[in-house]
Amino acid sequence: MNNITQIQKQTFRYYYEDGLAELAVGILFFVIGLDVWLISSAPQGTPISIAAWILLPIITIAGIYGVQRFVKNLKEKYVHPRTGYIEYSAKPNRYRWLVSGFVLALAVSFMILPYGWLQKGSVTGGMIIFVILVSIGTQVGLKRLIAEGILSFIIGIILAFLPMSDNASLVATFIPTGLILILIGSLVFRKYRSDNPLPESAND
Amino acid sequence: MTEKEHPINESWAGLTSVDKLIHEPARLAVITILAVVESTDFLYLQRATGLTKGNLSIHLQKLEEAGLIEIQKTFQGKYPRTLCKLTKKGKDGFTAYKEQMKGVLGK
Fold first, then answer.
1. What are φ and ψ of residue A113, in 5° steps?
2. Structural domain of residue B67, as residue ranges?
3. ipTM score
C-alpha cells in the first residue's frame, strides 16, 4: 500500500518537477510586490497611487489565471513532448480547501486585527507564502518547495524587525521571494531540459 | 478442526479472489497512476512505469479489453498523443482491489 501512495505522490509531484510553476508564481509575486511598492511610495491621492490601488486586485485575479495559462503553454511546448502529459483533476480536495481557508484567515486577520505581529505585512506575507509552499511540498514530497517556503517565512520575520511601514515590509517580502522563485524555477527548468532531451518521436 | 478454527483460510481466500488483471505489477502501476488523474498519455506512463513501449502497449490493451481503461488517440500540435483514462469499472475495480489487499495484508 505504501508503494501505491508513493506512486500517486510522484504523479502529483510531476507538475512541479520542471520548475515552471515556481517561475510563473515568482513573476506574479514580483509584479504584486512592485504594485504594492507603488501604493506605498506614491503620494496618496495621486493618479499613480489610485491606479496602483485599482491594479492590485486586477493583477492578483488576472495573475492567478495568467500563471495557469503561462505554465500550461510552456508545458505544452517543452514538457509534454519530453516526459509526457497529465491532466489533473480540477476538483479541489479537502486538503486544498483547508489550506485556502487558512490563507484567507491570515489575510483577513492582517486587515482587521489591531496592531500586533500579524499586522506586520512581512510576517503575514511570509507566512502566507510559507503555508502555500510547505503544504504543496509536503503533499507531493518535494523538499525544494518546503525550503522555499521556510526561506520566505524567515525573510518575513527578519524584515519585521527593520524600521519600515507595513506596506513597505510586505513589498520587501514579495519582491525578494518572487526573485528567489524566478531564479530557482529557471535553474530547475534548465536542468530539467538538459536531463530530458526531446525524443525523436515524442509519443508512441 | 473446523474451518472456523483456521482464520488463515479466510485470508487465503481473500488473496486468491484478488483481481489478477489489476494485481499484475505493471498494470497495477498504470491503474494506480490513472486513479489520481483525469487522464495521462502513453509517454508519461512509459517513463513512470519503466516499461518498454511494446510491453506497455500490451498491458494497456489488456486493460482496455477488460473495460478498465479508455484509450483515445489525439494530436497535440504535430505530436501524436495516446491518452489513457480510468473508466468507472476501472475505478470501482481498483477500490475493491485496495480493500481486498487491506484485508489480506492488514492496514
1. -70, 150
2. 3-105
3. 0.81
